[in-house]
Amino acid sequence: MEPIHPWETPPGRGDHDAISVTSWVSVCPRGLWNVQQKRICDRSQQTVLNSGNACSSGYYPRLGSLCRVRVRLKASMDDTESSASGRENEKLEVDPDLSASDVTESVVTSFLRRQDSVLQIPLGDWTTLKLGEGQCDVTEACLERMRAGEKWEILLSQVENGPDVSVPQPSDGNLPLCATVELQAFTPGKESWEMSPGEKWEWAKSHKERGGVRFRSGDVWGAAHSYSQALKLLITLCGHFTEVEKKGHEHEAGEQSDTNAADETQQLPSADEFKTIKAELHSNLSLCQLKLHQPERAKASATKATQLEPGGAKAWYRLGQACQMVNELEEAKRAFRKLLELQPELPAALKALKDIASREKETNAQLGLRLSKMFS
Predict the structure, then answer these.
(1) Model confidence over 304-357: pLDDT tens digits?
(2) Where do the domains of the chain lie?
(3) Which of 242, 244, 245, 231 shows the shortest CA–CA distance to 200?
(4) Is the bond preceding 295 in cis, omega lying within 30 degrees of 0?
(5) In what order do the strands lie in the sheet with 31-41?
(6) Which of 274, 180, 290 is nearest to 236 (CA)?
(7) N or C: which end of the chain has fewer CB within 10 A?
(8) Fold entry, domain 197-244+271-367
(9) Nearest to 291 by CA among 31, 28, 24
(10) Within its chain, how far is the Cα of 337 from the centroid?
(11) Nearest to 308, CA basis, from 334, 281, 329
């Protein structure tokens, strides 16, 4: 999908001088936004942190990195364009004495996510974010592409046919929004493939908890994103649990196992608990997708939940709802009947089956009327 005002890389430049432009779609509390990112202040122009400090200029922030970042909203696109000529000499405010301990000991900025804002971060001030926590999806996605001392410009526009989101706009009220993102320093983090199973499990639990908090606050888009992030990590753990189950009885009694492996196993849940948590995540994601009017996705998520945990009543109810929305009434009836097996006389299931019967009766009546007209 083309952004409203796409940036283009000027032709005829070498790799060193080329303007790097990337684009993606990000989540905010009430919808999806197109994001374009362009570097306007190269790290080679900056005072790069010395060795032994928070990071090396050759690395990017990763999951768990503490990032010192500042986001500022441009007053207008005209101001952005008029300042382009001075960008080459622009200097980022980097403290050469900033050490790893300074960043590590800084408190992660607490900022309540708002329904009326795209950028979920205090604007204009230096802020400490922990990459991976999903405080501001737009900012985190930018940071994953940045190095210490770099400054990037971002252009934000609503996804076509997306929900109507009220956002903090420039003074002239024009869209798209334009902002700058500056990365002063960051601590080392890890890619997901570098993490131990225990670390992945802790991250997955934190995403699940964060998803619940966001859902209860009305941030359905943010909740769906958190549940999806948790599931992505749990998928990488499936092989680990399969291997553990196979090796569960291989060692004879009294045989000493590797201490580190034993400690790691103690941090992880049992295979049954792992399956239950994964089913809950799929079920919760299904509920979010129902509220976001994505019935096909909700059906797929609820189906996975019922396969993992056949006794999960909520998942069967959400599967029935999703099937109703896509007019798969036979599948919906099977789901609600299964729910009644788990919770007999449940009013919600009985009402749903009654509604389906009414819809089928109406459909049959309309079909009979058409057939009678055809042969009359």
Answers:
(1) 999 999 999 999 999 999 999 999 999 999 999 999 999 999 999 999 999 999
(2) 21-188, 197-244+271-367
(3) 231
(4) no
(5) 21-28, 31-41, 151-158, 177-186, 66-73, 126-130
(6) 274
(7) C
(8) 1.25.40
(9) 31
(10) 34
(11) 281
Confidence of residue 112 (pLDDT cuts 50, 70, 90): confident
The rounded distance, in Å, linking the Cα atoms of 248 and 373 is: 69
The token duo for 72 is: 């500022």
Predicted TM-score (pTM) of this structure: 0.78
Q: Is the pLDDT of residue 121 over 60?
A: yes
Q: Which amino acid is at 112?
A: L
**255's tokens:** 């045989």
What is the tens place of the pLDDT at every residue in 20-68? 788 999 888 868 889 999 988 665 444 334 334 444 444 899 999 999 9
Residue with tokens 């408190």: 107
What is residue 160's DSSP assignment? T
CB 149 within 8 A of CB 48: yes
The whole-angstrom separation of Cα 229 and Cα 305 is: 16
